[in-house]
């Protein structure tokens, strides 16, 4: 059977037994009984008493308990009290630390369940997300959190931030058209997934999966299947404990046998052996290790790191490989214009000169052909705002060059808009300039150039014919940026008489005979501290490996910039990884430094491959898709 993303909307509705008007109450009730609530299954938290008793599972602690019992049976109250006091203190320390970490994690989990807007029997309703069932029709708008997996039925300029699932730094553009053949999750443009944020546009989608059947639920299932591993310290202490216990038991039995052989009373010989065992067992070892680890967790807390398990502190010191996500971990998870090309100029983004007429008009177009709203500056270099990441990047470029997007928009007010369309790959904005109108366009460079006949000269004052040679030069520059993993957007404009701009705005009529203004190349920039962190890891003998859901070219560019990918190292995609056998991956593992376009299962496979080679592996990332690894 074809997957949901391969089926046209009508077939999806038929298979789900629903319609564009949504489900009836009777259908909803039956489906709720069948599928349950739209929630992720939570693993049961260990009760405090279970955590406390778990502290006594160590072999040496068990021997000490045995010695204490014998001391108690022989009326040696002092020895019994001392032994029990030491092991109980050790257990209390471990339990308190565990509960402190759990409380810290609870604050991270305390996210309110959002509501969902659905169509039921043709009526739009807002219901708790837990009550959504397969077959419901979701109504999606900018700012909404998607509460279940769904197949898009209709959409207008719909974009969704799926970075936590896919690792993509840019919002995904959505369409109602089905995909041809099998494609990875990041390229299923006709689907929306639970946990994604709608950043632009609007649309409707029919729910195809809820709860543990969603993509996030599948990742939660993977997490349940990953068991705890013994830490290096635990393995060393277990080995030491078992050897020490064996030696002590042999010596104590020998001493007991020798005492009986010499004619001592059996009880006296037994007490001497027990005293010898208690003296030989390093009962303070567990307490000392626990105290030292507790000190380590306090230091980590000062660095804003929550340590759930004391033993994890020591494991960090043994790490030999760090697998890291890219988007939001090594990078800032926001777009920034790195370079721009205006006329003959190719310059760093922030070095455009408003005193130059071409530069100024290009910057004004960046502010006008734009639906985003920039937040006030905060003085920390992270202005933020509301809207598409690429549009926010253009507004930040305008501000960085000394102009105010708000003032530009007030001076040249918008009078109409043609939204972005994935077929046209353009968006246009109509503005009043004096007595006339002007259309400002933004989109893919190759598509935009096909609609341009002239190129700007001296800003809005003049223009000249766009020659074939000049067009080729622009396309070559765009391709060179794309090879470096940069996202390239072109801008153009067209002056219009008031009569031309009257009536409905039709793209085929308006978006032609444009004047090319220039283009901007942007990407999700690396965090300033990332290069230093990578260099520090290498100095410590730790190998950094990038594992990301983003495109291979983008991943390689960032990895090369940060020093993760060096000459002779390899980069592979998820598809190439699927084609590798376990043996081939093991052979190539040491040389591969970048994995791109990967799924949560791929990340888990990579980590396990390094562990199989005897390495202690750390995995860091900010996305849901990083959690199982």
Task: Explain how this protein is built.
The protein has about 625 residues and is of the alpha+beta class. Helices cover about 40% and strands about 20% of the residues. The protein is built from 22 helices and 23 strands. Strands 9, 10, 13, 14, 15, 16, 17, 18 and 19 form a 9-stranded mixed beta sheet that branches. Strands 1, 2, 3, 4, 5, 6 and 7 form a 7-stranded antiparallel beta sheet that branches. The longest helix has about 35 residues, at about 75-110. The protein starts with 8 loop residues before the first helix and ends in a 9-residue tail after the last strand.
| Low-pLDDT residue intervals, each spanning 5 or more residues | 107-113
Distance between the termini: 30 Å
Instruction: Output the number of helix runs.
Output: 22
Note the main sheet.
9 strands, mixed
Gyration radius from CA atoms, angstroms: 32 Å
- Helix content range of the residues, please? 40-55%
Beta strand count: 23
**Beta-strand level of the residues, as a percent range?**
15-25%
Q: What integer is the average pLDDT?
A: 85
Computed structural class: alpha+beta
Q: Which overall shape is indicated by the principal axes computed on the Cα atoms?
A: elongated
